[in-house]
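Progress note, project year one: complex with 9MR.
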Amino acid sequence: MDKVLARDTEGPAARPRRRAALISAVAGVAMVAAAVMVTSPSASAGTTLGASAAEKGRYFGTAVAAFKLSDSQYTGILNREFNSVTAENEMKWDATEPSQGQFNYSSADRIVNHARSNGMQVRGHALAWHSQQPGWAQNLSGTALRQAMLNHVTQVATYYRGKIYAWDVVNEAYADSGGGRRDSNLQRTGNDWIEAAFRAARAADPGAKLCYNDYNTDNWTWAKTQGVYNMVKDFKARGVPIDCVGFQSHFNSGSPYPSNYRTTLQSFADLGVDVQITELDIEGSGSTQATTYGNVVRDCLAVARCTGITVWGIRDSDSWRASGTPLLFDSSGNKKQAYTATLDALNAGGTTTPPTTTPPPPPTTTPPPSTTTPPPSGSGCTATLTLNQWQGGFVTNVRVTAGAAGANGWTVSLTLPSGASVTNTWSAQASGTSGAVSFRNVDYNRQLGAGASTEFGFQGNGTGPSGTATCTAG
Ligand code: 9MR
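Model obtained:
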């Protein structure tokens, strides 16, 4: 972070926006930003979205399209109102790695350079996603796809190391209904693909906050929201490096702003992650739309760990849903009622205490098993269970370790406590859901070298198993 701070405060272009640049550079150390804000009040404070949000220790951002940066009306509003940007498409896999191993950052760099020279921070979007994959990745599967995805995460996060406030490491991995994972080529590489992506991102850029980002996770009662919540809870319990959850918040009549939105934000925050509103747009017009924008802002300000809001475009004509006029500026660049309601809500926000953000922990490697069962001396394997239990449910992670002869295939068998049942398994094939159950390797983790290990896991209802289980090699 030191290097970033020095870079951000040095250049002449950065000076006019020094306060915002500092916020950007010390995003992980909000108290410093607060001190700067207190000692150097600006005449523009509270008259723009970015300035007003900064007074509350938060950012106000927008999605930006690189090709629009030559539109002076567009950049005029961007530079005046916003202190954070997200590349609308330019950092996606198809844009940054159009051919395998050949990286192209030209469009993304235009956005990052514009942001940095105007004192704005950058949200990175998105490293691993089932959509907008280049054709070559769409044609991969299994280990080849897993390795390609991890390489992509590593390369892109390394290239932008020190310049990104928060990365959407994984985007939209949950199914629209049912609360489980979305089927995708990435999901088919093994349920642990998400945590593998987070670990790779942390190793590549330890200073960036690492987010999981999704849509239709705003309503606390929806199964999808609960599915993501349980994943984050499990990640926190097991030390998977996740720092934040992004709520896209594309609201319309089919997916309306829910009255329990604040509950959702607070509940996730209570897991020990920041929450961010990452792609906000609200279809509608006039006072109804304005009121909803105000409600969203008030909800974010009410949650200490809601660190910022990003709208998904500047003018209605810039929106992916332009006909729904969902943004804060009309197609001529005029401020809408929604803009005024947003600014008023920001200015009225109760607290001036910025969220206290803890710096992300150092890079983590795969956590060791909770008990140290030595690998078997010859053929065979061992299985060590780590249980994350909560009221009514559990996640058990299993570390399989091969003996000195290695393993070409493995099966873990155990007996679940009475009343428990398995609802979801990753990185293994389950047989049975209650009583005596077994888990067989899948393709990518079938072969284990001498003493090597792999992890799989399962989720269930009731009381989960812990300790050790029987492991059979072959
Ligand atoms: O706004 C983006 C649009 O220009 C692209 O055509 C589209 C392609 O998938 O992606 C849009 O942005 C999406 C974002 O990356 C992820 N969440 C949903 C957004 C709206 O579709």
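The pocket of 9MR is lined by residues 88-89, 131-132, 215, 248, 279, 320 (CB under 6 Å).
DSSP finds 14 helices and 19 strands in the chain.
No further modelling is planned for this target in the current period.
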